[in-house]
């Protein structure tokens, strides 16, 4: 029994050594993790900006008074509604393949293509998150701002959005975590991120188990850290509300 266990440990050590230590392959994992985090942050920023614009347009359309409908705003709102419906109704993998092999088929910068695809996908979900937060603020707050002479966008900027931020923060944190995990799909278009390097190393060693288990643990560790930071920030915001 002890001899069998010793042989098993020797085999596992050899597999782990080839997957992580041989030829300094651990550096590839760190490089892939860095690229993954950069893609996540860039895509989320892109998604938040896009989602904020869509959310403000849709909220402005929904809050129009009867008999004072703006046709141009209605048209733009229709485009925004079409955008969120199409993006949320189709798989992210299919969207990434379209961005890479149809729209940007001549581009060699697959990381940038991945950021665009992830950002546009995230923007549709962020738009609904922000829209829900904006709609949760009492309409009297907007009317008070307008009565003070502020236009619609200044009212949203200085009064509504700061109040809605606390409501949407948990959902934005969850979107960040989801987006971080979804970056693994970008390896399908050839972007050199964490999962891409794991598959590459598995192909060289003809052993996929150690690199895939390894990156799974890396994803899990980063998600745990992000979740802890998000919970800490939410607790601080709740404490500030009590004061």
Secondary structure topology:
Blueprint lengths: L1 H20 L4 H37 L8 H19 L2 H12 L6 H27 L2 H9 L4 H31 L11 H12 L3 H34 L1
Helix pairs in contact: 2-3, 2-5, 2-7, 2-8, 3-5, 4-5, 5-7, 6-7, 7-9, 8-9
Short description:
The protein has 243 residues and is mostly helical. It has nine helices and no strands. The termini are far apart.
Q: Helix share of residues?
A: over 70%
What is the rounded distance between the termini?
Answer: 64 Å
Major sheet attributes: none
**Residue windows where pLDDT falls under 50 for at least 5 positions:** none
Mean of pLDDT: 90
Coarse shape? elongated
Number of β-strand runs: 0
Number of separate helices: 9
Keywords for this structure?
243 residues, mainly alpha, 9 helices, 0% strand
Overview of the structural elements:
The mean pLDDT is 90. The radius of gyration is 23 Å and the shape is elongated. The protein is mainly alpha-helical and 243 residues long. The chain has nine helices and no strands. Helix 5 (110-136) crosses helix 7.
